[in-house]
């Protein structure tokens, strides 16, 4: 277990929609640079599916175990995934990713770098996902970036790095993290992820494809849930994106 990334501070598991919980935790980019990232937990029957996994501390894991049994982990963001091996090991969970997703350290890994983990399933268009009424949307960028749409509550879109909602820095930001992320344009509600845009340079039509999806709610990996009216809230920034 000691090879896994340690648990870092996080908040409570909050049920934001029926059968869907959201928990905000910490990512540490450098010794003085931390900011928040969030995990979504979806329950179906007594199974739990973790999306955008964030390692919880012992108390958090106990709260998670109260909700059901973790069976699957779905990775969406091209630059996340560091806690997937922990959950795969602890629960013998199956890890699902888009094809060509790799587990490599850093934002610009060396060519030929050895992955630190391998997912169990690469999700193709006809792959049956471990949640009923769920679909995986690929934005066609490199590295792959996905969203998970749940056909419930008018459409729930769970996002990795592409759709964010950091209206304000939260308690998981260090002082340097606050200054840095504000300067880099991350601190805005209903935002396209600035780091993701810079790293993957999506074409405008790849971003605009989001508006073809039907959704009412967005559960981002960075920021707070957007409950109700999410598509209209994100429409201006999506339409304004010109590459
Ligand atoms: Fe991220």
Q: What can be said about this structure in brief?
A:
This protein has helices spanning 58-67, 84-91, 175-183, 194-200, 204-208, 230-240; strands at residues 14-17, 20-30, 33-44, 47-51, 69-74, 94-97, 121-122, 134-138, 146-150, 156-159, 163-164, 191-192, 217-219.
Describe this protein's structure.
The model has no long low-confidence stretch (mean pLDDT 96). The protein has helices spanning 58-67, 84-91, 175-183, 194-200, 204-208, 230-240; strands at residues 14-17, 20-30, 33-44, 47-51, 69-74, 94-97, 121-122, 134-138, 146-150, 156-159, 163-164, 191-192, 217-219. It has a single domain (14-240), classed as 4-Layer Sandwich (Metallo-beta-lactamase, Chain A). The protein starts with 13 loop residues before the first strand and ends with a helix. It is an alpha/beta fold and 243 residues long. The chain has a 7-stranded mixed beta sheet with strand order 1-2-3-4-5-6-7. The chain contains 6 helices and 13 strands. β1 and β2 form a beta hairpin. Fe (ii) ion is lined by residues 37, 77, 79-80, 161, 221-222. Residues 37, 77, 79-80, 161, 221-222 line the site of fe (ii) ion.
Measure the end-to-end span: 42 Å
Strand content: 25-35%
Report the radius of gyration as a whole number of Å. 17 Å
Strands of the largest sheet, in order across it? 1-2-3-4-5-6-7
Shape: globular
Q: What string, H for helix and E for strand, traces the elements in order?
A: EEEEHEHEEEEEEHEHHEH
């Amino acid at each position: 277990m000691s090879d896994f990334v340690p648990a870092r501070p996080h908040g409570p598991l909050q049920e934001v929609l029926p059968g869907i919980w959201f928990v905000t935790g910490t990512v540490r980019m450098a010794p003085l640079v931390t900011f928040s990232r969030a995990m979504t937990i979806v329950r179906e029957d007594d199974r739990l599916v973790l999306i955008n996994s964030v390692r919880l501390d012992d108390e958090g894991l106990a709260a998670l175990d109260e909700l059901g049994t973790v069976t699957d982990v779905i990775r969406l963001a091209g630059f996340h995934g560091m806690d997937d091996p922990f959950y795969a090991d602890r629960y013998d969970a199956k890890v699902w990713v888009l094809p060509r997703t790799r587990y490599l350290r850093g934002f610009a890994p060396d060519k030929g770098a050895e992955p630190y983990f391998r997912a169990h399933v690469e999700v193709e268009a006809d792959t049956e996902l471990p949640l009923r009424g769920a679909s995986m949307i690929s934005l066609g960028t490199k590295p792959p970036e996905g969203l998970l749409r749940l056909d419930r509550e008018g459409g729930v879109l769970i996002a990795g790095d592409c759709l964010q909602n950091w209206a304000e820095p939260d308690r998981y930001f260090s002082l340097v993290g606050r200054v840095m992320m504000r300067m880099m344009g991350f601190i805005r509600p209903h935002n396209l992820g600035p780091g993701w845009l810079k790293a993957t340079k999506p074409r405008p039509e790849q971003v605009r494809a989001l508006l073809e999806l039907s959704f009412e709610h967005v559960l981002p990996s960075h920021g707070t849930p957007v409950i109700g009216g999410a598509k209209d809230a994100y429409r201006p920034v999506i339409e304004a994106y010109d590459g």
